[in-house]
Task: structure prediction
Amino acid sequence: MTTTPLVALQRPKDISLDEIEAELSAIWHSQSADSLNQGPTRASTFSMVIYEPEEFQQLLAALGFYEGPIDGIHGPMTKAAVQDAQKSYGRSITGRVDPGTLAKLREEFAKNPIDRIKFDNPNTRGFSISDAIAVQNPGRIITLCPILGEDQGVTAQVSAYCPVQQGSSNHLICCEYITLRGTKAALERVGGLVASLMMPDLPKFVWWKATPNPDQVLFKTLADSCNCLILDSCYFSDPESEFLKIHELIDEGTYIADLNWHRLQPWQELMAAAFDPPERRASLIEADQLAIDYEKGNAAQALLYLGWIASRLDWQPIAFEETGGDYDLKHVTFKGANQREITAELAAIPTADWGEILGDLVGIRITSTNLQADCCTILCSETTGCMRMEAGGSAQACQTEVVSSLSDQKAEFLLSQQLQRWGHDVLYEESLAVVAKILKLRG
Result:
């Protein structure tokens, strides 16, 4: 697979915030004047704000564990650095930045008088974009890069980049990059400016690569200014709390897209296909036992899948109990349309080597206490398998299917697909509404 090369029209240049639009105009004017053929033009597609704190990489770099780019990618270099830090500080070696590891990194960072800016390369961070997004020809990308250290205001860099088009045409369709850097407090102060930089009369997206916080002024400003707020619940440190916040935002009219929701598509399609035959579909009303296994560390996918099934079968949650243990067990009780009681169990399965996506589904079993009902179905992950599901025991003959995950589960690829969708995802919103009802039963 070849990558799309990016050609700089002008090298990034440090400027003050009030010069951003003037600097962009100068770039386009100079290129049009110098071009013998038709000059490059700015894409008139959409604008996007990307908020990428990447605090964990900055902390790892400052503490001497990481020498790679500050790009938020949980690749081999980042994983190795996290493992080294966890080993050094006597924590469980998982390669994942769990809340405890992040708290320890912050604690150690606060102890040491380190040059806190040197590891944030100002010439690269915020000026990279994956091929998956670049092919959508964005008109403007505004990247917010919070940095650690003292508040010294906000600095800006502006540039224009053009993917090289294959074919004989010399005409270039280009994207503008605006990168703002400063402490979180400094970026908070310029939220209104960021919103005004989104191009008028074009679709506006905000990709919030952090925990959603409706109480944060910057988050609220951007959420109110965009057509679609894009999140990824696989990185939520506390999905149970964050899902309630997201549901409130949806109720307020905010259009939310959760990239993690799209990772469930193969599981949803196989479960639906299992009940396509009329005789199995008729027996589905007898289903009253559901088990969902997921990789330990993040319950977001399991909760969303539970919400999806419950919303499709009109199950109403009436009780929620967290019993914990090695599998962090969660039990939810529902009432079905025929007043039948349904029980669901969510189990977090420890795995030896977590993949890039934390909390991937491992296995699902739906069955009935009515031994005559032909509804027992088991879905198993192609990569992880689901021995626990198959060893669960059942007097019924179960239909077993192997689920192949999406060819590319990375956020950048899923985001490029999201950019092609318009309109609210009613299925997601209905599923999340059930999840919210379940979570409100806690305690």
User: Anything to note?
Assistant: The two ends are 50 Å apart (CA to CA). Confidence is low (pLDDT under 50) at residues 1-9, 116-123. The chain has 16 helices and 17 strands. Residues 27 and 151 are 30 Å apart (CA to CA).
